[in-house]
Amino acid sequence: MDFSQLFIEISKGFSTFTWQNGVMIAAGLVLIALAVLKEYEPVLLLPIGFGAILANLGMTTEHGMFKALYDAGIVTELFPLVIFIGVGAMIDFRPLLAMPKMALLGAAGQFGIYGALLLAILLGFPLNQAASIGVIGAIDGPTAIFVTSKLAPEILAPVTVAAYSYMSLIPVIQIPVMKLLTTRKERLIRMDYAAKPVNDGVVIAFPIVVTVIVSLLAPDAAPLIATLMLGNLLRESGVVERLSKTAQNELINIATLFLGLTIGATMTGASFLTGKTLLILGLGFLAFVIDTVAGLMFGKLMSVVTGGKINPLIGACGISAFPMAGRLAAQVAKEEDFDNFILMHAMGANTAGQLGSVIAGGLLLALTLGMV
Amino acid sequence: MDFSQLFIEISKGFSTFTWQNGVMIAAGLVLIALAVLKEYEPVLLLPIGFGAILANLGMTTEHGMFKALYDAGIVTELFPLVIFIGVGAMIDFRPLLAMPKMALLGAAGQFGIYGALLLAILLGFPLNQAASIGVIGAIDGPTAIFVTSKLAPEILAPVTVAAYSYMSLIPVIQIPVMKLLTTRKERLIRMDYAAKPVNDGVVIAFPIVVTVIVSLLAPDAAPLIATLMLGNLLRESGVVERLSKTAQNELINIATLFLGLTIGATMTGASFLTGKTLLILGLGFLAFVIDTVAGLMFGKLMSVVTGGKINPLIGACGISAFPMAGRLAAQVAKEEDFDNFILMHAMGANTAGQLGSVIAGGLLLALTLGMV
Amino acid sequence: MDFSQLFIEISKGFSTFTWQNGVMIAAGLVLIALAVLKEYEPVLLLPIGFGAILANLGMTTEHGMFKALYDAGIVTELFPLVIFIGVGAMIDFRPLLAMPKMALLGAAGQFGIYGALLLAILLGFPLNQAASIGVIGAIDGPTAIFVTSKLAPEILAPVTVAAYSYMSLIPVIQIPVMKLLTTRKERLIRMDYAAKPVNDGVVIAFPIVVTVIVSLLAPDAAPLIATLMLGNLLRESGVVERLSKTAQNELINIATLFLGLTIGATMTGASFLTGKTLLILGLGFLAFVIDTVAGLMFGKLMSVVTGGKINPLIGACGISAFPMAGRLAAQVAKEEDFDNFILMHAMGANTAGQLGSVIAGGLLLALTLGMV
Amino acid sequence: MSELLNQGLLITAIGMGLVFLALLLLWGLMAFMASIKVKEKSEVAEVPAAEEAVAEPQPEANGNRALFVRAAAAAVATAMLLARRSPKAARPAGSAVSSWQTSKRTSQMSSNQSITYRKPRGSAR
Amino acid sequence: MSELLNQGLLITAIGMGLVFLALLLLWGLMAFMASIKVKEKSEVAEVPAAEEAVAEPQPEANGNRALFVRAAAAAVATAMLLARRSPKAARPAGSAVSSWQTSKRTSQMSSNQSITYRKPRGSAR
Amino acid sequence: MSELLNQGLLITAIGMGLVFLALLLLWGLMAFMASIKVKEKSEVAEVPAAEEAVAEPQPEANGNRALFVRAAAAAVATAMLLARRSPKAARPAGSAVSSWQTSKRTSQMSSNQSITYRKPRGSAR
Ligand code: NA
Ligand code: NA
Ligand code: NA
């Protein structure tokens, strides 16, 4: 009988534990604390945090349960795409359809992608990684995962963690920038909401038309836009209530839980605790800030062009981060003037930002693949 | 830097688009329109239609999300079988158990399978494809998918589309045939419903006994009959309410959504727009008509044999297409005479048709495999 | 045309049927009868029984649907682990946290594991199989499946069937042992429940801390304890209600249904009907008895040590079998004295037994892997 | 071709023959099973009781308090009935086929919701 | 590096250009689609009817029986409304964005539930 | 065999030793954690308020209108309570183990539903 072999087997939990594992477990605890105490995106941060803890106790994506989930949901892209079906089933495009010009704000909120990409190149990242870092600026979880897993799966963990963590910190990031870049007078601008009801047929046709156009313009974004619009079609068609409900509940819940755990499980100390990760987190933060700044600036531009009929705050909703960014802008306007109700406009810009992010992500993927 | 390479990458959405893709997208739109405007089987036609659009925008079953779904659910047979668990949990066999002679109608409604098979052979199809075309006449989606994916996966798309499209058009197809082949006097026949309560134990034992018998008689039908009866056992046992509910809701919804999308995604222009497809669609239509005619004729025969105690209309329910065909026959009888209530008899024949379709599908599979 | 080939194909259902298949179908019917008539663990026994019937009608885990489910859920360990997420989301650790000393009972209830292991060695089983037989004494389905599928997948069917069948027979097994080993005076002992409310933060931190400690002590138990505690964290965190509900409902229902069917489908006559299986079933029974005896004895010891403040009955809850064992002990105490309410103490010991079983299973796995 | 056609005709003959055989067998089996006597069960007692509570209110209520109590009781009973029914409401269309015994009476009521060219939303298959 | 930076700048130029182009296209498309006239539908009639039933109770109820009937009616109507609403209550947060037409009025009411640093529990993404 | 039995005995000794060690550790840990002081929270205030609304009806209602209003209020409160409870009703059996603080009182009530040889339907594991 080999006692030493036995002792090794029993004590392997301690013997393979490194200080990096300890640090990452602490990081996981911070994510869980943000989820539980601050209620920042808890449905994602809590599973990610718990997955990070598990990865550093030996349950990595290289074997067992998390390998199975990684292969079934990340490699196949099913988890982010299934989540998009559910998100699509939760989106109401009526505000945007009633105010089509808001679409432009959804383009302006994507500058952060390219800002971060250029900075990453300057810092020495290769193009595929730089593009993946840039996609943090899409400020949309599934888009970030989809693009990064195709361009640079080796940095999937930090990119995803950055995307979701900053998304959960949106209020902390955006409010100071909003107050800094807009004057009180601008924030007080009221906007009329011409209560123009949108034809039900248009609302049903919209997701189909958008799918066709965007898939032709940016074929690499097709799966993303297709699933988002599929969910929306399930919702708006009115004839498949049971599918719409399943997409909004069971499907998205299961995919979210497993996606979060699996992403967390890629955060092993050895691979995550590098200078590169710190750089990625920093660049991701800048991407968020640049997005917000560009959005606000474009909002100010539209405000000037329209002769002060646009409240620049809604520019900050073009970044995506649906639906938090939309609510946030409305909240800031209301804080300035209790009777200033811009939520509908903000949500219009926010849904445009969602579309813009997916399109930008797909184009980024195509352009980068065409370069390397 | 290679601009031409970049341009190719960006414009590939347009450059790879063919007129066949355009036609198929239009076909997908028609399916969605049938689903949304006419509410014909929307839970299936809408995903199939949307899948067809996506396939012709580049999202085929050869890569990405739809390859993953195809491998996970069609190749493994899991999608149709999981749907059958849910369907089984929705079926009530009490009307059939109370009137066992209705079982014969479930056999008569399968003639269309062999009519279509023979016609297909005459038109030059090889045996495996002819049998797959015949199975459209089973008028049951999961059976058609199960049999075709084993015999001739290369024509899975047109067979499935024919099966589901015609099933959604059941009222349009059956009502004229019903009115043509039955006299008003026959349609006025009332049937007594001896309100014979069925022993609960019998209702629980029935799915188990049917599984054993059918699996021995037609082993190739075993997975189909087993899942259908499993669902029914979950329902009738009364002790696993939570499993029964899950089968009837989340499980069937998820499988239906993904099945529809994946089947749709096999409908690429290049593979679907052939003369063969047109022939298959035509033969499938004939299979539906032959089924209905044979069922009605057998109904008339039973009417004569029983001395006018059977309304021949219920013969049309033996074709399967559960539960639409059953409701339809009852409706036609009621239109003739508002007080003629034959719904129970019709549903009895309809559930028999469901059993008959599965058995016939399994036998067809076995016989064809034994020939080729 | 080859008629004999055709005949072989059609009659293969009967020609391949053996008397062993008949016996196993009868066994499947017994399991279903236990589920339906006695309502013993119906959500598991019914699918297992139905799966056993199907396996002996040709639907084995070697091809088709059950191979797909076996590969997707048993080989990857996902089914038992997903079930554990759901179980964790149903457990309330407050009674245990309020009476920490109950933890010891959760250790005492594991002696049956090693008793059965030693007996199995004496009967000539190799070490890996003996350990797998021992894990029946963990009296916890997912633990038994997890450990056995790693150590001795060739005896997964009898081990799992023994674990779930005896678990469903817990009242029949435990009550006689309880009455035999405790005096009426002991059963009449009342216990104070110091209604000490537990800090919510502690309840949230508990699953995380347990995960870290147990994963370090018994890394092979990490997936089991991690999923159990993940479910509990989802429940107690209070911020991810939708994930907690999904885990307790859809996820656990789907996994339970498919796990039961797949385990049942491994019970083919040829592989199951051996002398070995009978030995395993017998040893499993002994494991249950030894667990209960050891738990009661430890309960008596604690009763003596605390000067009669502990009712020895709660020792029988340390075996796991959550939550039946806990309810059972409370019920036996109440039968003796209608006003003796020990349910909280019993559930405290029962949850400790759940933890103890998982830890013991992980250690058994590690030790056996370190030996062979 | 003619070889193939022969095969097809053979499959047709055997296939239809076996289908009829199988369903004849099922007929016999069901006739046998259905002949097994039904045991009466009395589990259905509770719901009607609640429905009585709803139907109960008689006009000759004497006094305000009694009246109030009745109103509240009726309201609660109704709410409970609704709560009890709501899960069934969520049940999919196909499963509504079970209360056969009401036969003719249902006929009148169901005649409102014409079903000819339309089936209930969301029925899955 | 400078080669890479050139590539990056090129991607930026083309990428942002195409994003703006795509969303301009969507603007035009939406403007066109939104210009399609709305057909009036009268499906919304039923619920207000039930709400009226709730609001109906007038003080001048003459006689106990009438009073009782009204109370019961109101109770039932309320319960039904609640039952009808309960599925919507289960709907996730993101979908609450639909009843835009109430605009200003909602503004006052929603101001209680501050959202700045907090989002509703369990919104998934 | 005896070699194998030695291995078995060794596994038994180490295994049971470590199980007791692990649970002793958990005991200490829980004793420490449980000693952390509980902060009082006042979130539970709302539901009792609604229940009061149900229990409120006093006999000395003066006038028909007041009576009516009370009846309606009670009905609505009841319906709301039921609506609020219904999701919990859907909760599976295993989770019912949480309201420990009611201890003895529950004892009397729960004694009706005997559990010895039977467990609630559909509890999953
Ligand atoms: Na964005
Ligand atoms: Na048929
Ligand atoms: Na145990």
Radius of gyration of chain A, in Å, reads: 21 Å
Largest sheet of chain D: none
Q: Tally the helices of chain D.
A: 4
What is the element string of chain D, with H for helices and E for strands? HHHH
How much is the average pLDDT of chain A? 92
Residues in helix, % of chain A = over 70%
By DSSP, the count of extended strands of chain A is 0
Assembly of the depicted chains? heterohexamer
Amount of helix of chain D: 55-70%
Chain-averaged pLDDT of chain D: 53
Strand/helix succession of chain A: HHHHHHHHHHHHHHHHHHHHH
Number of helices of chain A: 21
Q: Which overall shape of chain A is indicated by the principal axes computed on the Cα atoms?
A: globular
Structural class of the helices, strands and pairings of chain D? mainly alpha
The count of DSSP E runs of length 2 or more, i.e. the number of strands of chain D, is 0
Largest sheet of chain A: none
Helix-strand makeup class of chain A: mainly alpha
Global morphology of chain D: elongated
Distance between the termini of chain A: 57 Å
Small-molecule binders: sodium ion
Q: Biggest interface and its residues per chain?
A: B-D, 91 and 58 residues
Descriptive account of the structure:
The complex is a heterohexamer, with 3 copies of chain A (372 residues) and 3 copies of chain D (125 residues). Chain A is built from 21 helices and no strands. By secondary structure, chain A is mainly α. Chain A is globular, with a radius of gyration of 21 Å. Chain D has 125 residues and is mainly alpha-helical. In chain D, helix 2 (46-55) packs across helix 3 (64-90). Chains in contact: A-B, A-C, A-D, A-E, A-F, B-C, B-D, B-E, B-F, C-D, C-E, C-F, D-E, D-F, E-F. The complex binds sodium ion (3 copies).
Features:
heterohexamer; A: 372 residues; mainly alpha; globular; D: 125 residues; elongated; disordered C terminus; binds sodium ion
Topology (elements, then pairings):
The complex is a heterohexamer, with three copies of chain A (372 residues) and three copies of chain D (125 residues).
Chain A: H1 3-10, H2 12-15, H3 19-37, H4 42-55, H5 64-75, H6 78-88, H7 94-98, H8 103-108, H9 111-122, H10 127-134, H11 141-151, H12 156-168, H13 170-181, H14 184-187, H15 200-217, H16 222-237, H17 241-265, H18 269-272, H19 275-305, H20 324-336, H21 343-371
Chain D: H1 2-34, H2 46-55, H3 64-90, H4 103-110
Helix pairs in contact in D: 2-3
The structure holds sodium ion (3 copies).
One sodium ion is lined by residues 109-110, 138-140, 291, 319-320, 353, 357 of chain B.
